[in-house]
Amino acid sequence: MTSENSTRPRDLEGRAAIVTGASRGIGKAVAAELLARGADVLITARKPEPLEAAASELSDLGHGGKVVAFAGNAADAEARSGAVDRAVAEFGSLDILVNNTGINPVFGSLMEADLDAVRKIFDVNVVAALGYVQQAHRAWMGEHGGAVVNLASVAGIRSTGVIAAYGASKAALIRLTEELAWQLGPKIRVNAVAPGIVKTQFAAALVAAGEDKASAGYPMKRLGTPEDVAGLVGFLVSDAAAWITGETVRVDGGLLATGSM
User: Fold this and answer.
1) CB neighbourhood size of 243 (10 A)
2) Contact 176, 134 (CB under 8 A)
3) In whole angstroms, how far apart are CA 224 and each of 25, 88, 175, 215?
4) Which InterPro entries does the entry mention (predicted)?
5) Whole-angstrom Cα distance, residue 240 to residue 11?
């Protein structure tokens, strides 16, 4: 992660954001992108120590935006309320919400899946995202407007067989995005991004056989980086995307264009 980007616009100055699941990976890169564009950012995740370390690193980038860390489980209503209230209190507004938190503890056949684990996947990946939108709407966006981006997945668009429960939750998140865009417009725009495999700790199990093998089916012949996703999120929450809502934008190196997963 670097602070050097002379071409990045400062188009989010005066705006405040929450990014969930932001102690590492895509969430941390999104926070860096928003800061570089001039926003103040509250980052949240479950574990306090990695979150504080991420906040310190983001502050050290020297982009000028304020960084606040708030530890809490996205699936916990009190934690969601606390994060939103803290953001409004610290920054005076809440203009951007990025629902990045996601879990995937279940692999393989759905016929053998632990239903409690499946419920947890949907609770964190879908219900918690809706809960954050509800809270942000009550606290600020309902009156003042804003932009929401949900982190979906290509697994929510096409079946994988391997991460089926996760994929079903991301398909639900994509539909949720469309419903919210319809219900919350014109003040609030709601979009989603659907990454392919991105080189993060979260995706480690999917590249266990080697990065070259995992990326062989991608037209771009490489896996994604957190920054690939972050740049798209930064665009979608900016005024450059002012007439885009209800969309799920793929950032997958062309994978779905091949007709396979």
Assistant:
1) 6
2) no
3) 11, 33, 24, 9
4) NAD(P)-bd_dom_sf (IPR036291), Sc_DH/Rdtase_CS (IPR020904), SDR_fam (IPR002347)
5) 9
Q: Which residues pair with 101 in a beta bridge?
A: none
Question: Stretch 20-46: mean pLDDT, rounded?
Answer: 98
Report the CATH number that the domain containing residue 62 is assigned in CATH: 3.40.50.720
Predicted pLDDT at 202? 65
Listed residue (99, 205, 120, 207) closest to 169, CA to CA: 120
Rounded alpha-carbon distances, angstroms, from residue 15 to 41, 50, 144, 186, 254: 9, 25, 12, 18, 32
Instruction: Report the C-alpha gap between 98 and 80 in whole angstroms.
Output: 13
| 188 lies in some domain | yes
- The whole-number pLDDT of residue 212 equals 78
Number of domains in the chain: 1
**Domain assignment of residue 100, yes or no:** yes
Catalytic residues, by residue number, are: 166
How far is 37 from 14, CA to CA, in rounded Å?
10
Spell 52-62 as b/e; 16+ CB within 10 A means b: eebbeebeebe
Paired strand residues for 43: 19, 69
d(CA 81, CA 40): 18
pLDDT band (50, 70, 90) for residue 26: very high
Is residue 205 packed enough to be buried (19+ CB in 10 Å), middle (13-18) or exposed (0-12)? exposed
Q: Is residue 242 part of a domain?
A: yes
Say if 4 falls within a structural domain: no
- Domain carrying residue 25: 16-198+225-252
